[in-house]
Amino acid sequence: MPRLASLRHFTAALVSIAFVVAPATAQVRTGIDVVAHSEGGHAALRGRKVGLITNHTGRTLDGRRTVDVVRAAKDVTLVALFSPEHGWEGKVDEKVGDTRDEATGLPVFSLYGETRVPTDAMLQGVDTLVFDIQDIGCRFYTYVSTMRNCLEAAAAKNLRFVVLDRPNPIGGIAMEGPLLAAGATDFVAAYNVPLRHGLTAGEFARMLVGEQGLAVDLHVVACEGWQRVDTYDATGLPWIDPSPNMRRLSQAIVYPGIGLLEGTNLSVGRGTDTPFEILGAPWCDGVRLAATLRAAKLPGVTFVPVHFTPTASKFRGERCGGVHVLLTDWRAFEAVRTGIHVACALRALHSEAWDTKKLDWLLKHPATRDAILAGTAAETIVASFTKDVALFRLRRKPFLLYP
Asked: In this model, does residue 7 exceed pLDDT 80?
């Protein structure tokens, strides 16, 4: 892929980033809201032929679709649409085919079907790719992987890339978990960041471009009014389920810790009303698991024994024992620390029944997997991340957009 000969190109690109630090308010404006209220059209889009990467989450505060705002923008030509995992309407948990947007008649090219990278045919007539999708701040949530693939395509084809930024719903301060092991990048691991990285999509893009030296004309239209301390409840923005099983903020908050266990033979609540807030299996003793986890006195959370029967996904139609992961203080809660404790408790209580062959699928950190399987204390494992997270805090600093 193209590389910068020096930092001059990236430094120049930073100057062009549309960023206004607004006073803290109860109402945040996202990147598309900034575009919608730009007099004369936004400079990053003016005169451009746009391919828009978005889905059902791409909406303004007043409910207008990003598609319609961009299409109506002065001196902008909307050429094509692109959808990520879960499809154009965010309802599908499988591969997705191309479709068409009924309102505009434009083709919607799937980037979670036969290809995950926009092809030459898809990009015909496009000189600017625009990304507007609500991410949730977890490394293995794949919307940033779609963004990475499109950034690389933009660099290869000399296209402009514009991120219409949105808040990180689980906050921009806390960072948790192991960084990506060397050579482990894939579609559920977009870049070498912790499991919970504390970046917005725009900041993630800046980090990719800056550290990888991508020769791409990157513009980020930043949110107004968002601060790093804010979780989604503080933004004043309506919650739109980013994916079929991400139905409320509490699920996004627990996801980096509970979701990392999905490679194993454990239900994380898919096929129930409370995905990621419950977990278990037919072989799981929820009473013993809850007692073990409560004894750890983890901050911001407690555990209640439950039985549940998923109607879809893993263990469909089977009665499972397990626990309800009950948040008591989501600002104190540490998702990855909690997930590691759950893994260590499962190893101690159900070493024969718990199938860990794919434990590293989302962790992407063999040393952590091996420590769990060796019976290492959970707090010792969590402490092993401290140095790498501290270094990441320094790495990410030049790319941050928000106070």
From this structure: no
pLDDT at 10 over 60: no
The single-letter DSSP state of residue 397 is G
Contact, 80 vs 107, CB < 8 A? Answer: yes
CA distances from 365 to 128, 179, 191, 333 (A): 36, 7, 13, 22
DSSP H or E stretch at residue 206: helix 201-212
369-382: per-residue pLDDT in tens? 999 999 999 999 99
And the tokens for 287?
């009473």
Residue ranges and CATH numbers for the domains of the chain are 8-235+391-399 (3.40.50.12170), 249-364 (3.90.1150.140)
Compute the radius of gyration of the chain from its Cα atoms.
21
pLDDT digits 0-9 by tens, 344-374: 999 999 999 999 999 999 999 999 999 999 9
CA angle at 121 for the pair 115 and 123, rounded to the nearest 5°: 90
Contact assessment for residue 360 and residue 327, using Cβ atoms and an 8 Å cutoff: no
Transcribe 207-233 into DSSP letters.
Answer: HHHHHHTB--EEEEE--BS--TT--GG
Other CB atoms within a 10 A radius of the CB of residue 234 amount to 17
Can you say whether residue 30 is alpha, beta or left, with left for phi > 0 and alpha for psi between -120 and 50 degrees? beta
Annotate 256-317 with DSSP letters as a single string.
Answer: HHHGGGTTSS-B-STTSSSBTTEEEETT--HHHHHHHHHHTT-TTEEEEEEEE--SSSTTTT
CA dihedral (229, 55, 276, 357) in degrees, to 10, reads: -110
pLDDT of residue 12: 34
Tokens found for residue 204: 């993630």
pLDDT of residue 8: 32
Residue 6 has pLDDT above 90, yes or no: no
